[in-house]
């Protein structure tokens, strides 16, 4: 899919936007925080979560997931299997990292109420993974790939207009 650094950045921004919007909304609803936060607080939380997710995806999870996915024994010429391998590796890494981020924000907001950190983290991972994997494989991933190919790749591959003076 993305081949240049610029394309990787656009693709990552699009993927993070979709996943953060859905996952953050899900977690706010699950934890009963949607009604207790102002729209400005929700926007602030979204921006902060998006920045963390983008940095984690770009510099930690993305490179590691790519190495793991393409080290797996599968026919590399099969693009569908390559996309699935990469998507699963990304989801696993992002769920592990962003669930930790969620735990940290819950701890800082005194929302853990004496619950076991390990038990809560494992529960959070399972809950987030159960939404993130199908979301990535069925909705956000295909949608972002479609938009990326249709608008970003098409624009990058379009031949520039050359004025020959004739």
From TrEMBL:
Key words of the record: Membrane, Transmembrane, Transmembrane helix
Membrane-traversing stretches: 12-30, 42-62, 83-109, 129-148
Keyword Membrane: yes
Entries under Pfam families matching the protein: DUF2798 (PF11391)
Entry keyword annotation includes Hydrolase: no
This protein's name: Flippase GtrA
Lineage: Bacteria, Bacillati, Bacillota, Bacilli, Bacillales
